[in-house]
Amino acid sequence: MAGGGNRGAAPVAAPAWRTLAPPAAAAAAGVVLAWAVSGAVGGTWAGLARALADGAGATVLGLAALPRLTDRHEVAWRPLTVAAGVWFAAELVVLAGDAADIVGVPVTDLAPSDFGTFLIHLSGGQIGLAILAATAAIACYSALSFRRPATASPDLVLIFAAVALALRPVTGHMSQQALGSVLAAVHALAAACWFGLLIAMALVLRTRGDWAAALPRYSGLAAPLIVLLAASGLINGLIRADGPAGLLRTGYGHILLAKLAVLLVLAGLGWWWRRHWVPRTRDHRGTAEDSLRNAVVELTVMGVAFGLAAALAVTA
Fold first, then answer.
1. Contact 125, 135 (CB under 8 A)
2. Of 60, 126, 180, 233, which has the highest C-beta tally within 10 A?
3. Is the keyword Glycosyltransferase assigned to this protein (predicted)?
4. Based on the number of CB atoms within 10 Å of its own CB, is 112 exposed (0-12), middle (13-18) or buried (19 or more)?
């Protein structure tokens, strides 16, 4: 598919990467909030790296899936390549941090031999290595597709991105529970689709017609996604915290409750959008600037949830 063009309209403007600043700052705030409510000491940098990796992965998935949401646009290969590169780098930082924790040294003092041993001989390193391979493949394929869009397809990106996003959750602590891997995969992919599609829209859509075509379809997907996200996250959390009482007495439970509170805010915001933003946009009564502003507001709140989720993953 061709790179980033708009059929029958003027070329799409370059992606407004500045729209990523508010959700990125919110994700960092979410990580800090997680450590504040849990009373934990340290781990902030690991949480920030995890949030960056998850956010970049969701962005890759959303950019690859956007043409399935609206046929007005083809794949924006250039921003997809950038997002994949950021994802690879963030996953590398996460892996280095995991290895340093196991060795018991600061990440800056991690010896290459120890890092290699972690990647080759320990299950956590092997999983991370597989994720690195998938993200590197996505980055390389996207870069080539930008040069030769006529022969490129987003399907390979979608497959590799979905596997990379779900691989760590499905092999984590929930894999030891009945249906735990399924719940973990559903949770990870629902979050990535929900966040990723909206951020792809904010980066690519530039006209009122673009938003009118895409937003109602996204709104129809967002409601079931947030239900899946909340249900799977709550079940996982209750199992991890050993029941409702554990939510109140453990730092993990405190982070989970904060995340659920943010999800409730997002659910309320989504209800408001469906009553006001979506109808106005569908009927071409709202401007592209209004839609972009509303999208950034929602993405910023989502960023807090992503930061909390990243800290939750590090805590687990």
1. no
2. 60
3. no
4. exposed
Residues with Cβ within 8 Å of 283's Cβ and at least 6 positions away in sequence, in order, are: 212
CB contact at 8 A, 247 and 256: yes
pLDDT one digit per residue (tens) for the chain, 316 residues: 334 444 333 333 444 567 889 999 999 999 999 988 887 655 678 889 999 999 999 999 999 999 998 887 888 899 999 999 999 999 999 999 999 989 989 888 999 999 999 999 998 899 999 999 999 999 999 999 988 887 888 999 999 999 999 998 877 655 556 566 788 889 999 999 999 999 999 999 989 999 999 999 999 999 999 999 988 888 887 877 777 877 888 888 888 899 999 999 999 999 999 999 999 999 999 899 999 999 999 999 999 999 999 988 877 6
Q: What is the distance of C-alpha 142 from the center of its chain?
A: 18
* Residue 209 CB contacts under 8 Å (≥ 6 apart), including other chains: 9, 72, 284
Residue for token pair 């409750």: 257
Residue 297 CA to residue 234 CA, distance in Å, equals 25
Among candidate residues 302, 312, 275, the one with its CA nearest the CA of residue 197: 302
Report the alpha-carbon distance of residue 3 to residue 87 in Å, rounded. Answer: 20
Please work out, in degrees rounded to the nearest 5, the angle formed at the alpha carbon of residue 116 by the alpha carbons of 114 and 118.
70
Backbone angle region of 104, left / alpha / beta, with phi > 0 → left and psi within -120 to 50 → alpha: left
DSSP letter at 176 equals: G
| Cα separation, 299 vs 301, whole angstroms | 5
Please list, in sequence order, all residues whose beta carbon lies within 8 angstroms of the beta carbon of residue 268, skipping any fewer than 6 positions away. Answer: none
CA 69 to chain centre: 18
- For 289, phi then psi, to 5°, come to -65, -40
3-state secondary structure of 73: strand
Rounded Cα distance between 310 and 316, Å, is: 10
> CB 157: neighbour CB atoms within 10 A?
25
